[in-house]
Amino acid sequence: GSDAILLGAETLRGLYPVETISTVGRICAEAEKVFNQDLYFKRTVKYVGEPMTHLESIASSAVRAAIKVKASVIICFTSSGRAARLIAKYRPTMPVLSVVIPRLKTNQLKWSFTGAFEARQSLIVRGLFPMLADPRHPVS
């Protein structure tokens, strides 16, 4: 149920760094095989409690619906990444594609697009695959 594993420098300085990473990968794969998604979902909903925020309610409902219809992917359009992270919090059985919509910002001297930072932040979340939308093709 964790998002990532951080190995210390001691692990990689040993004589067998490649074998170490391979072993950790196999352990993770085995752990994922016995992960009870249904139980995790119910516990997460119970932990969040009531009343849920609107965004939390939409996220949990999206995961529940995707599981019921056996969807192959959940696609979430976001500008901050928060909605996609909330969806991923419920550990759906399918990947979550987070399409980050860039926003145009200015400080009166320079124009820039935001979104790359938000997409990078999502890289650490389990099951979440961020993409940065092309700002030249506005969503209409």
Give a short overview.
The chain has helices spanning 9-13, 17-33, 37-48, 54-68, 82-89, 116-121, and strands at 74-78, 96-100, 103-106, 111-114, 128-132. By secondary structure, it is an alpha/beta fold.
Plain-language structure description:
The chain is of the alpha/beta class and 140 residues long. It has 2 domains: 1-35, no CATH class; 37-132, Pyruvate Kinase, Chain: A, domain 1, CATH 3.40.1380.20. 45% of the residues lie in helices and 16% in strands. The chain contains 6 helices and 5 strands; from the N terminus they run ααααβαβββαβ. It has helices at 9-13, 17-33, 37-48, 54-68, 82-89, 116-121; strands at residues 74-78, 96-100, 103-106, 111-114, 128-132. The strands form 2 sheets. It has a 3-stranded parallel sheet. A two-stranded antiparallel sheet has the order 3-4. Helix 4 (54-68) packs across helix 5 (82-89). The protein starts with 8 loop residues before the first helix and ends in an 8-residue tail after the last strand. The model has no long low-confidence stretch (mean pLDDT 86).
Set out the fold topology:
Layout: H1 9-13, H2 17-33, H3 37-48, H4 54-68, E1 74-78, H5 82-89, E2 96-100, E3 103-106, E4 111-114, H6 116-121, E5 128-132
Parallel strand pairs: 1-2, 2-5
Antiparallel strand pairs: 3-4
Helix pairs in contact: 4-5
Keyword list:
single chain, 140 residues, alpha/beta, Pyruvate Kinase, Chain: A, domain 1, 2 domains, three-stranded parallel sheet, two-stranded antiparallel ribbon, 6 helices, globular
C-alpha geometry: globular
At the fourth level of CATH, the homologous superfamily of the largest domain is: Pyruvate kinase, C-terminal domain
Which CATH class of the largest domain is shown? Alpha Beta
Helix content: 40-55%
The assigned CATH architecture of the largest domain is: 3-Layer(aba) Sandwich
